[in-house]
Amino acid sequence: MRKLMSVFGVAVLFALAAGPAMAAKVELPKANGRIIPATLFLVGTSDKEGRPDAAVIDRAGIAGAVGKEKMFVYVSVRPSRQTARNIDAKGVFTLNVPSRSQLEQAGFCGSVSAISGDQYIDKFAVTGLTPVKGSQVDAPMIQECPISMECKVVKTKSFGEGSHTMYIAEVKSVWIDDSVLNGSDSKFPGYPNPVKVDSILYYPGGGAGSGFYSIGQRQGASEELFKTKYPDAKQ
């Protein structure tokens, strides 16, 4: 505790000495990515017996894209979790974006393991979520989620002395509920409308204010915002 406090104290003194611009910030004793908000995803997998599972994974997102035809995503999972065992066994998963209306079901899926001792817990039966067979991979999509992606693992990487395994996967197909798509009058017809998708952000950490947050009002596109603030700026 003394060592931690001494490091913290030095950080505070450095911030104060650095002047007003830095005085409001304090350097943490170590990097902690858990302070960063994350999009809430439900990852769909199935085990060797073909039993479906869904789990909340907040360490997930877009890893990259090749042109407009290929997209890669990632999920990082503790090897002890059933989700990791299922992905290791089959090399595939689905990435599903829940709406606020599925928040309670997602909370259950993120808190309860599908395997507890010799007991299998069917999260779909408990929550009423519907597993849907995709066309590309042997893993369940979730019918109620407005966006689902079928993903095939192309690379894995271990982090933190084996505490997490990152699965990088190619998106083989994307499924979107037509009720959340932009209309023909939109600048981007046929693309998902974020307000209609109504996805969730997760603030981890367990402290005051941590938990789930719905995405609020649209603030504008990058170009709209900077041209409003800096009308004379050149692109």
Can you walk me through this structure?
By secondary structure, the protein is α+β, with helices and mostly antiparallel strands. The protein has 2 domains: 1-30; 39-229, Electron Transport, Fmn-binding Protein, Chain A (Pnp Oxidase, Chain A), CATH 2.30.110. It has helices spanning 2-17, 20-23, 82-90, 103-111, 123-127, 194-197, 222-229, and strands at 38-39, 41-46, 52-57, 60-66, 70-77, 92-97, 115-116, 119-120, 131-133, 140-142, 147-159, 164-176, 200-203, 211-214. A hairpin with a 4-residue loop joins strand 11 (147-159) and strand 12.
List keywords for this structure.
single chain, 235 residues, alpha+beta, 2 domains, seven-stranded antiparallel β-sheet, three-stranded antiparallel β-sheet, globular, disordered N terminus
List the helices and strands and how they pair.
Layout: H1 2-17, H2 20-23, E1 38-39, E2 41-46, E3 52-57, E4 60-66, E5 70-77, H3 82-90, E6 92-97, H4 103-111, E7 115-116, E8 119-120, H5 123-127, E9 131-133, E10 140-142, E11 147-159, E12 164-176, H6 194-197, E13 200-203, E14 211-214, H7 222-229
Antiparallel strand pairs: 1-13, 2-3, 2-6, 4-5, 5-12, 6-11, 7-8, 9-10, 11-12, 13-14
By secondary-structure content and strand pairing, the structural class works out as alpha+beta
Mean pLDDT: 84
Work out the count of structural domains.
2
CATH architecture of the largest domain: Roll
Helix content: 10-25%
What Rg do the Cα atoms give?
A: 21 Å
- Which residues sit in consecutive blocks of at least 5 with pLDDT less than 50? 1-8, 10-16
Beta-strand percent range: 25-35%
In total, the number of strands is: 14
CATH class category name of the largest domain: Mainly Beta
Shape: globular
Name of the CATH superfamily of the largest domain: Electron Transport, Fmn-binding Protein, Chain A
Tally of separate helices: 7
Main-sheet strand order equals: 3-2-6-11-12-5-4
Give the ordered list of helices and strands: HHEEEEEHEHEEHEEEEHEEH
Q: What is the CA–CA distance across the termini?
A: 50 Å
- CATH fold type of the largest domain: Pnp Oxidase, Chain A
Largest sheet: 7 strands, antiparallel
